[in-house]
Amino acid sequence: MSFEPASLARLSMSLPSELFRQLDTMVAERGLPSRSQLITELIRHALVEHESLIRPDDMLAGTITLVYRSERGRVRHQLSQTQAHFLKEVISSQHVVLEDDQSLEVLLVQGPAVRLKELCDAIRRVRGVRQLELVTTTSLLPPLHEQDGSTSKSIGENG
């Protein structure tokens, strides 16, 4: 990621020494070129989360990652019923079986922040769901269909 020198603003901050040490360790472990890159990423993540709280009608795209205990298909069935109630928001899902009768599922989602939160809350209520994380961005998927129902043009298509 490159920045135009004129588009940068300098930030000076003070941190407790232990937090500063942990930050430097994280930068090194992730192989990042600078603290600034990590802090920029963390701030962007916090801003998207903040926006979703104060502007619940804003459209967001993202993923919901969940881990759950399989339990003879009962949980998968309940999750698929839950997703059926959110057909406009759930674009696709990927499921893999893990060890110890657990499954990992990743949902690609897009919709108003409030609906994505409702979807996460509904999934959390399914008994057997062990972990759930929603990661969002304000960048959206391109529309798949025009309002009149015709298919959108592919990228690079003329006319």
Number of domains: 2
Note the main sheet: 4 strands, antiparallel
Would you tell me which CATH topology of the largest domain applies?
A: Alpha-Beta Plaits
The sequence of SSEs as H and E is: HHEHEEHE
The first-level CATH class name of the largest domain? Alpha Beta
Rg from C-alpha positions? 20 Å
Average pLDDT value? 85
Topology summary:
Layout: H1 17-30, H2 35-54, E1 59-69, H3 74-84, E2 90-97, E3 102-112, H4 113-124, E4 129-137
Antiparallel strand pairs: 1-3, 1-4, 2-3
Features:
single chain; 159 residues; alpha+beta; Arc Repressor Mutant; Alpha-Beta Plaits; 2 domains; 4 strands; 36% helix; globular
Characterize the structure shown:
It is a single chain. The chain has 159 residues and is α+β, with helices and mostly antiparallel strands. It folds into 2 domains: 17-54, Arc Repressor Mutant; 59-137, ACT-like. Chain A, domain 2 (Alpha-Beta Plaits, 2-Layer Sandwich), CATH 3.30.70. The chain contains 4 helices and 4 strands; from the N terminus they run ααβαββαβ. The protein has helices spanning 17-30, 35-54, 74-84, 113-124; strands spanning 59-69, 90-97, 102-112, 129-137. Strands 2-3-1-4 form a 4-stranded antiparallel β-sheet. A hairpin with a 4-residue loop joins β2 and β3. The chain is globular and about 50 Å long.
